[in-house]
Every structure is written in C-alpha cells, then in structure tokens.
C-alpha cells in the first residue's frame, strides 16, 4: 500500500488545561476525498492544527494513561504527515494547501489577487521584496487565476474583496503552494476548513462548483465542516467527531442519514438529498 497522507495513531492533544483530542486515530490515503464532520467545539480545528503540526500530541505518562484510558500502559502515539514526523511548519502548510476559515493576515490585505496567488509559491503573506518571482511562477499563477475563476480579481486588493472573492483567491494561493514549481511528485491536496462560512447562497454554490472541479481534476480534498451542504458527491468517506473523539469513520452511504446526524449533533435532524448533494435542518 502507498504511503498515506495522514497517519495518526492514538493521538491526544491538550489546549490549555484540557485534553481536547482524545485517542484519535486516522489514516488518509493519497487522492482520497474525506469529510471531517462534527458540531461546534468537537475538536475539528484542533485536529486541523494537529495535521498542520501547529499542535503536538501529548506524550502520556502512566498516570495520565490511567486517568484517560483506565490502563497504566500509555498507547503508542504517532503523527505522520506525508510520511514524515517532523516538518518545517511553513513548508508543511504550503504542501498541504491549507485554506482556513479565518481572514488573511494584514500584509495579505494590501496584496492584489494575482500577487496573493503568487505568494502561495513562497508560503508568504505578501510579495516581500526579497522574494524572486520566476516566469514559471507567473505562468502558473495565470493558469490558477483562471482555474479558480478570479480573473476579475487580478488587480483588486484582497482587503477590498468580498468573503467569497477572498476565499476564491485563498484557494488559488493554496493551489499554487501545493503544486509548486518545477516537476513535483507532491500530492495535490487541499485542506479546507469551513470553506463556505460567511458566503451567500450564490457564493456557496460557486465555491462548491470550484471544489468539484478541483476534485475531478485529481486534487484530493480534506473538508472540515459542520455544513452538510458542503459535502460533494465526489466525497465518499465521512469521519464524524464528537467531544474530541472520532465516533464514526466510514462510507458516506452508510453514515449520512438522519439517525446518524441526530446522534452526532445531539438533536433531531432532518435531511434531504438532491443530485448527490445533501441538506440538513
Ligand atoms: N486556545 C485554546 N485554549 C483552550 N481551549 C481551546 C482553545 N481553542 C479551542 N479550545 C477548546 O477546544 C475545544 C475544541 O475546539 P475546536 O476549535 O477544535 O472545535 P471545532 O470543532 O473546530 O469548533 P467550531 O465548529 O466551533 O469551529 C473547545 O471546547 C474549545 O473551547
């Protein structure tokens, strides 16, 4: 079997004084589209930060193993991302193509759409004077601008864009980082954290179409969300999280139903399906 993109085993992660991720094991193969689904506060962002190595797993003592697991034998914990346990954070974020739900930082806000895509090659917040942009990068950025449908945003500052326009450009930036320059055998993947947050209905649909297009072109998508409507027909595996644990991990056909969603969100949920997309309320 080929090397997985993500390989977590018995991971516990603390934030402040609390253990937030509780014995999480997760293996994601190259090219797989996966949805991480769960209610507010269940630990999705903590998991994301573990995948991007911004948070590190606890190394359990015998006492804490007894408290958390009822056994004095600590489990063998492992976090391996793209085959490696140690990463330069910037390099890893670039290679994973992370698009977060947060607004870009200040330097990015005064950067044009086209330049923002170029920054992806460097994993930089803006095109700082010491960065050398090559012709190959410029050509790739042109293609990506088209791919994400952001041609009209080429000269607009990110800080003057709407939420949907910003998300589009940030996806373009992540694709640039992900694909890099020169011959690269890196996996093409995007890690999208609540991508449709703050978008109106039309912008949500546009973004889903873009995600579908990328998925069809071979970019693996790891989607973190609590919006059922964001789950693309192309995504067949669902990982359900609650209270810092993975409570289900399996096929969408088996897991995406009213009874499982009601269990996950802790109240009666209704669901409908149309053309491979779902809605829940
Ligand atoms: N910096 C922090 N310090 C202490 N506790 C934190 C911190 N960040 C998050 N938490 C706690 O960790 C738990 C999980 O939070 P996390 O942000 O991972 O959940 P989430 O599933 O991403 O939620 P949401 O859907 O609301 O974004 C919550 O109980 C939260 O209060």
TrEMBL record:
Residues 6-268 form the ABC transporter domain. InterPro entries: AAA+_ATPase (IPR003593), ABC_transporter-like_ATP-bd (IPR003439), Metal_Ion_Import_ABC (IPR050153), P-loop_NTPase (IPR027417). Pfam families: ABC_tran. The keyword Lipid biosynthesis does not apply. GO terms for molecular function: ATP binding. Keywords: ATP-binding, Nucleotide-binding, Transport. SUPFAM superfamilies: P-loop containing nucleoside triphosphate hydrolases. Belongs to the ABC transporter superfamily. This is ABC transporter ATP-binding protein.
């Amino acid at each position: 079997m080929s090397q997985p993109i993500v390989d977590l085993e018995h991971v516990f992660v603390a934030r402040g004084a609390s253990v937030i991720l509780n014995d999480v094991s997760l293996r994601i193969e190259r090219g797989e589209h996966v949805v991480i689904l769960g209610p507010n506060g269940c630990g999705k962002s903590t998991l994301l930060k573990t995948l991007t190595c911004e948070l590190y797993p606890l190394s359990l003592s015998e006492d804490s193993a007894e408290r958390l697991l009822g056994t004095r034998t600590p489990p063998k914990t492992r976090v391996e991302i793209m085959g490696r346990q140690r990463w330069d954070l910037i390099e890893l974020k670039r290679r994973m193509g992370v698009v977060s739900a947060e607004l870009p930082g200040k330097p990015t806000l005064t950067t044009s759409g086209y330049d923002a895509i170029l920054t992806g090659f460097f994993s930089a917040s803006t095109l700082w004077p010491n960065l050398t942009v090559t012709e190959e990068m410029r050509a790739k950025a042109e293609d990506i601008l088209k791919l994400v449908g952001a041609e009209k945003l080429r000269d607009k500052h990110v800080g003057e864009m709407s939420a949907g326009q910003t998300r589009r450009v940030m996806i373009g930036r992540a694709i640039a980082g992900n694909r890099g320059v020169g011959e690269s055998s890196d996996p093409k993947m995007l890690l999208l954290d609540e991508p449709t947050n703050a978008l109106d209905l039309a912008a949500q649909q546009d973004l889903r179409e873009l995600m579908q297009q990328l998925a069809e072109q071979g970019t693996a998508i790891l989607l973190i969300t609590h919006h059922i409507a964001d789950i693309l027909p192309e995504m067949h595996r669902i990982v359900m999280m609650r209270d810092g644990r993975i409570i289900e991990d399996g096929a969408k056909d088996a897991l995406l139903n009213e009874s499982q969603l009601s269990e996950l969100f802790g109240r009666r949920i209704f669901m409908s399906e149309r053309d491979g997309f779902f809605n829940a309320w």
